[in-house]
Amino acid sequence: xxxxxALKKEEKxxxxxxxxxxxxxxxxxxxxxxxxxxxxxxxxxxxxxxxSFTELKDLLATSDGNISVHARxxxxxxxxxxxxxxxxRMPLTEYKITKEGRKAVERYLDHMEAxxxxxxxx
Length: 122
Description:
Layout: H1 2-28, H2 31-34, H3 36-47, E1 51-52, H4 53-60, H5 64-76, E2 80-87, E3 90-97, H6 99-121
Antiparallel strand pairs: 1-3, 2-3
Helix pairs in contact: 1-6, 3-5, 4-5
């Protein structure tokens, strides 16, 4: 009986540790890049020097509107730049990650890693 109580107390402690870690990490998560599509865009740009609107759209299998709206949010946060030009007679929109964007991705990954480690230790 005492052993069962000790096990239940230990489970509660582990649960609290994970809950505290999750609460701390979720409070520190960058809400701009936490959204699925924005995380996809910024991750793709972190792995490539630059990507065109069409390349991002094809890579993330999404609509023009999704890329447009979410890329603009990232641009407003200073995480990427958008350059519009023409390639021949065709309009070309290209995106690049900024230094701030790269730092934001690294911070985000550090927070997620901390959460994963807290879960593994529980």
